[in-house]
Amino acid sequence: MQYHRPASFAEASDLAAHATGITRFLAGGTDVLVQLRSEIVTPDTLIDIKAIDGVRDITRHADGSWTLGVAVTGAEMSEHPQLGREWPGVVEAMDLIGSTQIQGRATPVGNLCNGSPAADSVPAMVAAGVMATVTGPNGDRVVAVEDIPTGPGKTSLAQGELISALHIPARGANGGDAYLRFIPRTEMDIAVVGVGVNLRVDGDTITEARVALGAVAPTVLLVEDCARALIGTTLDDAALAALAASASAACKPIDDKRGTIEFRTEVAGVLAKRAAKIAYARAKGETA
Amino acid sequence: MTKHHVTTTVNGDTVEYLCDARETLLDCLRDKLNLTGAKEGCGTGDCGACSVTLDGRLVCSCLVLGVEAEGKQIETIEGMAQGETLHPLQRKFIEHAALQCGVCTPGVLVAAKALLEKNPDPTEEEARYWLAGNLCRCTGYDKIIRAVLDTAAELREAS
Amino acid sequence: MALDDRKSHFTFVGTRPNRPDGLDKVTGRARFGADVTAPGMLFGAILRSPHAHARIVRIDTSKAEAHRDVKAVVTRADFADVPFKPGLEGEFWNVLENVMAGEKALYDGHAVAAVAASSALAARDALKLIEVEYEVLPHVTDVDKAMAPDAPVIREGAADYSVPEGMHPNVVRYHESGHGDVEAGFAEADLVIEDHFVTEATHQGYIEPHACLASLGADGKGELWCCTQGHWIVQKTCAALLGIETAQLRVTASEIGGGFGGKTTVFIEPVALALSRKANRPVKIVMSRSEVLRATGPTASASMDVKIGMKKDGTITAAQGVFRLQGGAFPGAPGDMTAMCAFAPYNLTNVRQVGYDVMSNRPKQAAYRAPGAPMGAFAVESVIDELCKKLGLDPVEVRLKNAVREGTKASYGPTYDRIGLVETLEAAKAHPHYSAPLKPGQGRGVACGFWFNHGGETSVSLALSEDGSAQLMVGTPDIGGSRASMALMAAEVLGIPYENIRVTIADTATLGYNDVSHGSRVTYASGLATIKAAQHAVEKLCERAAAKWGIPVDAVKWENGCAVPSGPNAGDFDPLPLAEITADMGRTGGPISGHFEATPEGAGVSFGTHIVDAEVDPETGKTSITRYTVIQDAGKAIHPAYVEGQFQGGAAQGIGWALNEEYIYGEDGRLQNPVFLDYRIPVASDLPMIDTVIVEVPNPGHPFGVRGVGETGIVPPLAAIANAVSNAAGVRMRQLPMSPPRILAALKGNG
User: Is the minimum CB–CB distance between C668 and chain A shorter than 8 Å?
Assistant: First the structure.
């Protein structure tokens, strides 16, 4: 395994473009090293992107939008004084991944590029409308995070391409987000179901909504029907029931060691309701 | 395959080693520097027995490559006591019988120290969640949590 | 054994001093299995079968052997070459077959070859160069399916004499016992409940993977360092498997990072010795976590039918149980233990119990804390709970009404000596937990549990130093603070400070045979031997004092660490402290030591009662344990803090077993969850504080009254939690683990 520590994204892209065999980028390493140690994936080329300038920066722009460097860890997001106040769902989703030790290393970009449908940060980022800058041999392009994973362990990134930054939109007024997942223990598990909800209200009425489901299909799902069930409502019981039904209907899960089809389908609806209530309260400024 | 020459700082000492890119920081601490206090319980970041701090940040050393340690500051269980004086956590763990077999203990202590440095007055729940990545199969965690909370109280009184 | 030395007032015993090995273990300097190196050391790695059941057609190791970093490759042929002393049969053959497959790979993870190379990475890489041709065979991993007529046969001829005619060859041992007339008893009952229960296999889950460092030369002399619960069994087994004389292999037990029964046999040790002999260099092998989960002893899985009849007043009229245990590809599943323990807490006129030991394509089961007992208790205590509920009776009162006492004939045959079940139940009834109000969504469960406890072969030596300090050599590895209890018991007898006693876990070359640290036997048996060895030394100290004073030895007493003249000579001489006698011992007859060797038989059975509160989320089926109380008879707690630790640890493991831990096999017979990510043991945030009550009903078989405490604590939890969850959810849970999908499915079925 060849280890490289490039000083720029262009150099990283160039290394990857000309590498043969299996290439992996190393940010926090919490997936890459597990796969290496378990001999699931032993890369021929490993490109450590943490020496590139600015990769640890969390930047709030004048318009209220945010840019996250690709080596920003979950712990750094949680410790940021303002990010979690504006995007608590995104920060909490990242914070749910693994232990304190994992939080010291794991990054949302790595979580996204690992391609797991159960990645906790991804439904929250999809619901928030996060975009990614992809740097490749032909320069940069900006894509929605939901368009990065294409299936378990697979992404839309071509050879030589890597994510060079994440962009979180401006929170704006009267918005709130939340993420909940189901795991059998209290910590340390992979999500059996995950739900991210992002709302905006006008008074008591929901005017915008994005709902994303994790671990219930080969990729994280952005579910339009769930958004429709919420928009125009005051999150009354009928809206919650419609939301749960839409979430369950959108599920295309599998039976595996972590959960059954029936369980995932049922619990997706339950968590959608619970997450929506939290996001709604946050949008209305009732809770942090 | 060419090995990488790494210069790093462990418990305040400058050290050097040669490593294969595939070797973890844990492999390097144990096999090259003879610092065997950190243990490999799983190799996949699930048990915390290999906990160390890297530039002050609590990590699993099994999920850091040895080559990534270049130029970093690493603290391990071997650096926790000051000379013959145990860290209060170490002393309280013995007093509270907070260890049975003792194999998870170095990782738990390193993690608990990081907790108290960040939060000198953790609740029981905060301590339990902070330490959720440190598996202990012997104690049921009861005496570990009591030892951590008691140490925190003692440190607060002393400061 | 003379027990006229029973003590009830103690100076040291019952205090909570710091453990002697505490500093080493909080500073990282304690040396566990993987923490040592040797000059010229190689690293070993083991190739494992990816198939649940396959004939090994051919193994080609030539490419691995040609790798420049590889110094030795071994397969089963390297063991078969050994000129075995009069046949390798029985359990030794089973162990050999398990540590290195012969004609067939019998489970996913079964070892088929091993290499030793100059680095750990090179060894792992070299495994990929070994070519194995398999003929995949039909497999079975479920206990009921393994007993069915069409099940694939794991091994013909593995069954022993106990198995009735007509059973499938996978049924290898059969146990039946009981007394009375169960049919007549059921006829007397006002209510009879019969139900079916299933538990999945769980792993001991010790945090330290198996590790060893082996050195063996062509001269047949070897050194082995390993993490084990008992190094003499390692010595005996490895010598047999390698064809060398037992005494020529010196085994040193490292500090051990947990065992719980799983480190009572060998896995990698014979392989490392074989590699070392072939390479003529020391070889270290350290298992990965997935190797531990795939190839070392999980517990058995179980399928059980239990039927109990009860009168309206709570009297149990009859009980019967059938317990089918799957123990992997070898005989050994403790169906007999399950059967014998299942009804042991109850005074039954009519009882019958049947146990089956069934083989399947899974790893060879190993002991796990009270092996076999927790599953049976789960089934029996669940049925009793259901009977109490249907008859409107208090579950603790019903258990008290039927509880065994001194003189009761046990369900498994013998008559109980002095026991403490009633005391644990009375303590449960009086405990504030039992009467505390529950919140909506919560349920409370209680259950009792029983374990035999064990004595076992034991040797201890104690040597006094000139300055009056003492060194104590015991042969039972210290898994959870036993050095502290040994030092306390020796201090009690010698009358010198606890701190003046250094306790060492002796290696096999420096002490006589010691059985494994298992069966909750260490504080009982090594403790008894420590007391006797210390008393032996005291006799010699008294002899020296008698000679000095010129009085008969029977006129000398030992009090508070001093020889004291007694009887007619009382007051004639000043008390002579131990250190003054030892200071002169070179001139007064030579070194003073004490020894004791025996197989003590008075371990004394143990009972416990647990109370647990659980809360179930009705929308997701997720359970949280909100309160837990362990009440158990310890006989006499030598170091109460470590007794509490055993209670708490047993409860925590039981919580894992009840709620989330399980071996999950795919259709292909491969283990789906061989990592801690998906083999879900409880983490700190999953558990509440675990309250403990130490009941002390002295064991007549121990000088200080000790009963083992290590195992009983895992017997009640499965049942107590199942009862709590069933009460919280309003639906009876009959299958473990009670994972959220199972609970939610049960709730939906009920609705």
Answer: no
Does domain C455-598 sit in CATH 3.40.50.150? no
Instruction: Give B2 or B66, the one with higher predicted confidence.
Output: B66
* Reported ipTM: 0.98
For residue A110, name the pLDDT band (cuts at 50, 70, 90).
Answer: very high
Are C307 and C192 spatial neighbours (Cβ–Cβ below 8 Å)? yes
Which C-chain residues 294-313 have CB contacts (< 8 A) with chain B? Answer: none
Q: Alpha carbon of B96 to those of B51, B77, C13, C633: distances in Å?
A: 22, 19, 17, 22
**Partner-chain contact B138 C641, CB within 8 Å:** no
Q: How far apart are CA C704 and CA C640, in angstroms?
A: 14
B66 at the C interface (CB within 8 A)?
Answer: no
Mutation for testing the C interface, residue in B100, B130, B139 having most C CBs under 10 Å: B100
Residues of chain B in Cβ contact (below 8 Å) with chain A: 1, 4, 20-22, 24, 43-46, 48, 51, 54, 57-60, 62-65, 67-68, 111, 114-115, 129-134
Residues with Cβ within 8 Å of C392's Cβ and at least 6 positions away in sequence, in order, are none
Instruction: Give yes or no for C47 touching A (CB within 8 A).
Output: no
CATH of domain C301-453+604-750: 3.30.365.10
- pLDDT block averages, 10 residues each, chain C of length 751: 62 98 98 98 98 98 97 90 60 93 97 98 97 98 97 95 96 98 98 98 98 96 98 96 95 98 98 98 98 97 98 98 98 98 98 98 98 98 98 98 98 97 98 97 98 97 98 96 98 98 98 95 97 98 97 96 93 96 97 97 96 98 98 98 98 98 97 97 98 98 97 98 97 97 91 42
Best of B6, B63, B67, B116 to disrupt the A interface (most A CBs within 10 Å) is B63
Count of residues making up chain B: 159
Q: Does C2 touch chain B (CB under 8 A)?
A: no
CB contacts, 8 Å: A262 with chain C: 741, 745
Of B20, B63, B133, the CB nearest to A188: B133
Task: Report, at the CATH architecture level, how domain B4-79 is classified.
Answer: Roll (3.10)
* CATH number for the segment(s) B88-158: 1.10.150.120
**B87-92 long-range contacts, Cβ below 8 Å, gap at least 24?**
B87/B113, B88/B151, B88/B154, B88/B155, B89/B113, B89/B116, B89/B147, B89/B148, B89/B151, B90/C26, B90/C27, B91/C26, B92/B147, B92/B148, B92/B150, B92/B151, B92/B154
Which residues, in sequence order, are CB contacts of C510 under 8 Å at separation 6+? Answer: C473
As annotated, the residues of chain B forming the CATH 3.10.20.30 domain(s) are 4-79
Residue B47's contacts (CB-CB under 8 Å, 6 or more residues apart) are: B41, B104, B107, B133, B134, B135, C207, C289, C676
Of A26, A38, A73, the CB nearest to B44: A38
Nearest Cα to Cα of residue C328 among C138, C134, C109, C150: C109
Among C621, C693, C218, which Cα is nearest to C426's? C693
- Verify whether the Cβ–Cβ distance A75 to B131 is below 8 Å: no
Tokens of B50: 């290999």
Residue A115 phi, psi dihedral angles, 5° rounding:
75, 15
Distance between CA C224 and CA C220 in Å, rounded? 13
Answer yes or no: do A263 and C740 touch at CB < 8 A. yes
Q: Give all chains having 3 or more CB-to-CB distances under 8 Å with chain A.
A: B, C
Instruction: Give the β-pairing of C316-326 and C351-358.
Output: parallel
More confident residue, A14 or C86: A14
> Architecture of domain C42-137+210-286 in CATH?
Alpha-Beta Complex (3.90)
Dig out the tokens for A92 from the structure.
């909490």
pLDDT of residue C749: 87
What is the reported pLDDT for C87? 60
Residues 491-520 of C with CB under 8 A from A: none
